[in-house]
Design brief:
The protein is α/β, with parallel strands linked by helices and 223 residues long. The protein is 14% helix and 30% strand. The chain is built from 4 helices and 13 strands. The strands form 2 sheets. A 10-stranded mixed beta sheet has the order 4-3-2-1-5-8-10-11-12-13. It is globular, with a radius of gyration of 17 Å.
C-alpha cells in the first residue's frame, strides 16, 4: 500500500499553472498562489500580473538575484522578464476591473460547494478589509484557489456553505489542496485528482461537503 503523501505547496501551485493557456494574463494572490510563477510551460507564454503593478514577471528570485524594486503581491522578490511593465496601483486595478485578467489564483480560508469563497476575515477578528480580492474575484474570467485541505486544528475548509464572511459568490472553478484537485460543478465538488496513497474516502472524511468522485480519477499530476 502506498504511503500517504500530502502534496507540498509548490506541487499544488504547479498543477494549477498547468491549466494556464498560451497568452493568458494570470494574476497571482498572496501565499501559495505566488509559487505558480515558478512553473515554466515548455510551449506556452503566460503573462503574470500582480495587483501591486508588475506585468510579465518571472519566477521567484534566487538568493543574490534580488531586485528590491521587483516584488510580487506577497512581497517576494521576482525575476524581470523581457517586456515587463510596471504600473501604478490605479492602472493595475484598471487592468483587473476592465476584464483583462484571464485567471486569478487566490488563497482562501474556506470554499463552498457552490463556488463561494472566503479569504479576507477569520472568525472573531475585528476590523479588517477585503482588499483587492473582491476586484479580482469579479474582474477575472476564471478564479482558481490554492489552499490547505484543513485548518491547523483539522477542521475542513471545503464546505457546503462558507461560515466566514464571503469574498465573492459562485465564482470558483478549480481548487487545489494538499489532498487533491477539485472542480466546482452544479453538483458541488468533483474530485478529479488525488494525492498519492489517499483514497476518496480519506479525502471525504476531512471535507465538510459531499464530494463526487470523477470516474476518471487519477493520481495528482506533476507534469
Amino acid at each position: 500500500m502506498t504511503e500517504k503523501q500530502p502534496l507540498d505547496r509548490q506541487t499544488m501551485a504547479n498543477r494549477l499553472a498547468m491549466e494556464f493557456h498560451d497568452g493568458w494574463v494570470v494574476n497571482l494572490g498572496i501565499g501559495i498562489p505566488t509559487l505558480c510563477s515558478n512553473f515554466v510551460h515548455p510551449d506556452r507564454h503566460v503573462i503574470f500580473q500582480s495587483e501591486n503593478g508588475l506585468v510579465n514577471y518571472g519566477p521567484l528570485a534566487e538568493r543574490g538575484e534580488e531586485d528590491p524594486n521587483l516584488v510580487n503581491a506577497g512581497g517576494q522578490y521576482v525575476v524581470e522578464m523581457a517586456g515587463m511593465a510596471i504600473l501604478d496601483h490605479a492602472d493595475s486595478f484598471a487592468l483587473i476591473r476592465a476584464g483583462y485578467v484571464d485567471v486569478t489564483v487566490l488563497g482562501a480560508y474556506e470554499v463552498a460547494a457552490n463556488g463561494d469563497f472566503a479569504n479576507w476575515k477569520v472568525a472573531g477578528a475585528k476590523g479588517g478589509g477585503i482588499g483587492g480580492a473582491m476586484d479580482l474575484a469579479v474582474g477575472a474570467k476564471n478564479v482558481f484557489l490554492a489552499l490547505e485541505h484543513t485548518t491547523r486544528d483539522g477542521k475542513p475548509r471545503l464546505l457546503e456553505r462558507c461560515a466566514l464572511p464571503v469574498t465573492a459568490v459562485g465564482v470558483v472553478k478549480l481548487v487545489a489542496t494538499n489532498l487533491g484537485l477539485f472542480e466546482i460543478t452544479e453538483q458541488g465538488f468533483l474530485l478529479t485528482e488525488i494525492a498519492p496513497g489517499y483514497t476518496p474516502e480519506d479525502v471525504q472524511a476531512v471535507s465538510g461537503a459531499q464530494l463526487t468522485v470523477s470516474p476518471n480519477l487519477r493520481e495528482f499530476r506533476r507534469r
